[in-house]
Amino acid sequence: MCWFRSCGSKLVVTAAGHVSAHSMSDSVPHEPVNEYEHERVPDSALLGLKSFVGQYAGEHVAGTELMIGPLFVASGVSAFDLVFGLLIGNLLAVLSWTFMTAPIATRARFTLYHQLEQVCGRKLVVLYDAANGVMFTLLAGAMITVSATALGVGFKFRMPGLNDLLPNSVGWVIAVLVVGGLFTVVAAYGYKALARFANVAAPWMVVMFLAFGIVALSRFKTSSGVNIASVGDLWNLAKDVIWKGGDAFPGRVKFTFWHVMFFAWFCNMAWHIGMADLTVLRYARKSWYGLASAAGMYLGHFMAWICAAMLYALQLYEVNLTPAELKALADAGLLESFKSHEFLLTASKINELIQAGVWQGPPAVLPGPMAFHACGMAGLLLVVIAGWTTANPTLYRAGLAFQAIAPGSSRFRATICTGLVASLTAVFPLVTMRLLDFVALWGMILMPMGAIIFADFWLLRRFGMAPYRAAIYGLTWNWAAAMAWFVTVIVCTALVLSGGVPIFFVGLPGWFIATALYVGLSRLGRRRPVIAVKRQNAY
Fold it and tell me: Is residue 494 within 8 Å of residue 503, measured between CB atoms?
């Protein structure tokens, strides 16, 4: 997961926060680019498949992967559930981009925001911008946290544990604020320069994630004494040593195949089912170019997640305790078990260490120490760059979202203020250590708008109603869309809080609820159009 766009021929995030087609051979780099913000993308600006393969491949190997992979291990996932859950869940995500997002994008060829204004009205889009801005700010804070863990390796200050909600050392607070301040200044002043650097760094980051996996696998092979002579031997190592399954770590939700599958499918729900990638795929010549998302899903959300998970598993397997912790382990009669490397990947044994007073909680997910443990300074460099190249465009987009609420305000000031808030949230590790839940929450909040666009585009005509209702009725607030959004979020939240449906699953019933509500409420609120419906808007 990442929130900037990069590709070979190339898709550029512009100063207005939209994506435009821009040739890398342009001789006048400062010439304004036509973003087609309020019009269809012309045929002359359409891009080929290669552009989208490059964009999605570079987009989804990012700082978030360093946190998501290890959190699967903390959730007690087994090798079968992880591998096959990711294979199928990512396939469903690719199919969602291909058959839900891309067909609308290549027919209407409008940005998400223009599409929303035509359907929902300007005032409701402002509320959407606010929700999106808050989520971007929190995500940027999580990426600041990721990069700050690299400083902990050198400066040796105490860093947050897996279940910590509050900062636990002055050193941590200072490191986060310094990193956050640096990221904020770059986002405000030097977005384009770092975006170009991110494009160059993307292939290296892919290689480094693969290196993490190879190094971790080699260390597991050496420590466990397992001889790997076949694929069967490799699978036995994975299921018996690396991902043994069992209970989740204390304070975590147990993950099964279904949790992994739905998370892989819905972690980018806001982009495919939620239609955010209308802005990108409107440049595609064919709707089947949505299949290019497979490059990102299987490089980032399969390979990178698995390799990052192996880093955390290796940290647990080769954990080095302090003399005081070893003494407490011996006093509890657990020292011999510890030396046998038999138990540190199971929740029950971790509970024994906690009860014995050796640990205060489960081992922390700290990308800096994990990467350094595997690949030394190159690993630390990846942590900093991955967090930086994710936080920078995320802060930029958050600033744009807030600026859109008050169009006369300065984008620079909006980004600075957003960065300061993100830095303050980064001090508290709640979002970072609960990143799986946060990503699912983001999708749940924004998903109904995607369902509304889908219903407006494909279903309203079939029920005898005109699409683009805000535009043809002259509305600034489409009450049918607003009620469909609000009621869906309320129902989904109630399902989650009641314990009936985990947050990772609730997006599926939520999409059908939003679709049905929008169609039904639109039919109840039928009225005479104030302008004619243009055929190009519907098809």
Answer: no
- Give Cα 6 distance to the centre of its chain: 16
What's the whole-number average pLDDT of the chain?
86
pLDDT at 227: 85
Spans in the chain with pLDDT lower than 50? 2-33, 343, 533-539
Q: What does the pLDDT read at residue 538?
A: 43
> Going by C-beta distance under 8 Å and a sequence separation of 6 or more, which residues neighbour residue 429?
145, 160, 164, 165, 167
**From its phi and psi, is residue 341 left (phi > 0), alpha (psi between -120 and 50) or beta?**
left
> E strands within 187-255?
none
Q: How far is CA 472 from the centre of its chain?
A: 35
Which pair of tokens denotes residue 285?
């010549």
**CB 5 within 8 Å of CB 51:** no
For residue 465, which phi and psi values (nearest 5 degrees)? -120, 155
Please identify which residue in the block is written with the tokens 């595997």: 374
Three-state SS letters, 393-446: HHHHHHHHHHHHHCCCCCHHHHHHHHHHHHHHHHHCCHHHHCHHHHHHHHHHHH
Q: Which two tokens stand for residue 466?
A: 């005109």
Q: What pTM did the predictor assign?
A: 0.89
Q: Which residue has the tokens 């912790």?
A: 325
Query: Residue 396's Cα: distance from chain center in Å?
Result: 16
Cα separation, 3 vs 396, whole angstroms: 10
Q: Are 415 and 130 in contact (CB under 8 A)?
A: no
Residue 113 parent element (H or E):
helix 112-120
Measured CA to CA in angstroms, residue 176 lies from 20, 50, 181, 316 at distances of 34, 38, 8, 25
CA distance 112 to 459: 18
Q: How far apart are CA 19 and CA 277, in angstroms?
A: 10
Classify 12-319+363-524 by CATH class.
mainly alpha
How distant, in Å, are the alpha carbons of 27, 175, 335, 350, 374 from that of 217? 47, 32, 25, 22, 10
Helix (H) / strand (E) containing 21: strand 19-21
Alpha helices in 299-428 (DSSP H): 305-317, 323-331, 335-339, 347-355, 367-405, 411-427
